[in-house]
What we know:
CATH architecture of the largest domain: 3-Layer(aba) Sandwich
Helix content: 25-40%
Shape: globular
CATH topology of the largest domain: Vanillyl-alcohol Oxidase, Chain A, domain 3
Radius of gyration: 22 Å
Structural class: alpha+beta
Oligomer: single chain
Bound molecules: flavin-adenine dinucleotide
CATH class of the largest domain: Alpha Beta
CATH superfamily of the largest domain: FAD-linked oxidases, C-terminal domain
Number of helices: 16
Largest sheet: 7 strands, antiparallel
Number of domains: 3
Amino acid sequence: MDIIDELIQIVGQERASDDKTVLYAYSRDSSLITGMPDYVVRPVSTEEVAKIVSLASQRKIPIVPRGMGSGMEAGCVPVHGGIVLDLHNMDKILEVNTDCLYAVVEPGVIHANLNARLAEQDFFFAPDPASTDFCTIGGMIGTNASGMTCLKYGDTRKSVLGLEVVLPDGTIINTGSRTVKSDCGYDLTALFVGADGTLGVVTKAILKVIPRPRTRATVAAYFDELEKIGEVVVAIFATGVIPAACELLDRSAIKVINQYKPEIALPDVDAILIINLEGSAAAVEEEVAGVVSSCKKVGAIEVKTAATREEVDALWAGRRSVGSAIYRLDPKRASPNIGGDYGVPIKRLPEMLREVRRIAEESGIPMVAFGHVGDGNLHTHMPVNVLDEEELARAEKAGDAIYEAALKLGGTATPEHGIGASKIRWVKEESKSAYPLMLAIKKVFDPHNIMNPGKIFEIS
Ligand SMILES: Cc1cc2nc3c(=O)[nH]c(=O)nc-3n(C[C@H](O)[C@H](O)[C@H](O)COP(=O)(O)OP(=O)(O)OC[C@H]3O[C@@H](n4cnc5c(N)ncnc54)[C@H](O)[C@@H]3O)c2cc1C
């Protein structure tokens, strides 16, 4: 029997397709890398997933898990063809138990929908990607997504207590538990998080949920020298404060925000830090005082405590508008994810930012830098005409130079967006002596390399 007929037998005519127009829609994500699948199938239960994966295993064809395709590194792009498993219909919130600090969800649940449901009980799921409105919990698990508040609350891995997973041979296993702690042998739950779907398909997740902070305050500090940024973050930690968010806007980002939204009117300085503090009213008051005095001690030109909701919203609107601002700079230029996600030890942030400025100048590609400096994670946007091959190649070379610089400074080329197909080179360079062990683990789980092949590793 043809594979498409077998898939139809499992999920029905409506949820399996080999129609070229449907396949095209599944050939890309938010990266520049593309790959056509041979089939697309949309399961609604673990049993269906297990049957589809068993079929792929028997026929030795690739199987590629997909959430909403918002990934930046081609994680869900079928670079070797095969079956794309679109999991967005598995979107039930199965259980919310705030007394015991957990929720059980299917992988297709949208992050914002989960938090809307938890907000009814004044709880939340802490990892906070900016793609909250459209990314799925399965995709967040695949990429170990994080965001602005992971400094205080941790990345996705820190908030996953257990999983149900369909392994590459179709077996269903469970890891972890509904308890906040578990030491049951090797931490397989953690291994599946950030695996880019290369070890199995997540069909259920037990997530840690926590009470929402009762009070929040925002501080903005302006600096005339980039060098002070690393110093001030360290000074804040030394006062015993871990901010909920600690975001940097470098001169380049300030400029594009002011061009895009003049009403925000950010000052013309070298760097701005925007800091959020969350907790009880008394703790937040004390933390604001600590942050303000740290910023002043290190030499901020001005420190502002946003007093009203409007002031806070304006500051964060500026930070959140960086991406859109870059798109408006020049309608001919997109901002593909090139050299876009890297991290360095906090004290080395100024050196890294200087490197970015140097690489921008040398390459002739304008760059905008910003990021989650509290955890050393930076992003760069490069407005590039992707139809101009020479310009694109120059941008890619500049992107590589950025990642090389991050590694030289003791940092990482893989802090937040997963590996997918685009960061394979960096996994090898960064993991060095641990690389063979990672390859060996992949082979134990997936000896025939059918589970999302061409991601994390390129195995021949
Ligand atoms: C505007 C924008 C802002 C973003 N902001 C952030 C941010 O702040 N922080 C951040 O970390 N990321 C961010 N991202 C990247 C992306 O949104 C996240 O990585 C997100 O978690 C991906 O979710 P998704 O459902 O789209 O997954 P997809 O792109 O569909 O898949 C991502 C990876 O997960 C795997 N996967 C998906 N579902 C499963 C499953 N059930 N089982 C096993 N593997 C699975 C896929 O195979 C793939 O490798 C942003 C993207 C955009 C476009």
